Structure prediction request, 318 residues.
Amino acid sequence: MKIVILDGYTANPGDLSWKSLEEVGEVTVYDRTAPSETVARAADADVVLTNKVVISREVIQQLPLLKYVGVLATGYNVVDIEAARQRGIVVTNVPAYSTDSVAQMVFAHLLTVTNRTEHYAIQNRNGRWSSNPDFIYWDTELPELAGKTFGIVGVGNIGRRVAQIALAFGMKVQALTSKSAEQLPEGIAKVSQEELLATSDVLSLHCPLTADTRHLINADTLRKMKPTAVLINTGRGPLVDEQAVADALAAGQLAAFCADVLTDEPPKADNPLLKQPNAYITPHIAWATKEARIRLLDVAIGNVRAFANGQPRNVVVG
Prediction:
């Protein structure tokens, strides 16, 4: 069995190992693959693993030997699912491997906004506290999270974990979700979109990207939010209209925007959010803790083993 990993670097830049995959077949690992290189590199492969390299209908049509596509992520929109189904190609993903890591990033962002630890650390490396006449100083707002309202869009694995942490901070948690109120964990109130926007002090996005959720946050919905609210996106970049968010920040209609994902990654240099002082952007690293990447590789390699043994698991198509 020939196995090709098209873009292995982001999941494993060298601190982990693909060695156990070599027990299943002949493995070739590419750090990165340009669209123009995909077909040539996967031409002889029975199995292809991909994170962000697109396996389109056109690509599938040019890979007659392909039997399996393993996505090195939870989302599988990089694969043309219908084309794979028509060809009888098995497609798998890696669900829920990054739940705790992404939830951690949500609160890393939120605490950056509320407590500004990096701001003070930088000032104090430059002597600010040493030259202060009092034992204390502050030059930013220092809000307390307890008692504030934390809104969540989407109560899947990550949304639930985020809710648990918000509740541990003493926050009131409410959610916009397709689940019934009876299906929600204790402590999460189901609310309408209007109520969610109008009453959330923090709004965190954890829903899938669909035609209905694309630009869920836009100029209109931003106007319905509190000007003191913090918006957090660790879901999918296109859930927000980035220009509208930048405009809201500039106009004081939104206190802060925190994101680990953007519509284009890497972003264009003129992305309007990059120059906004109250936009806190991290480079899609919420999933990338070593612990999460170990789980990712373990499950992805296990998926290939299961397929080789005729009992595929974590199947999206097949």
User: Anything to note?
Assistant: Residues 153 and 205 are 5 Å apart (CA to CA). The chain has ten helices and 13 strands. The radius of gyration is 22 Å.
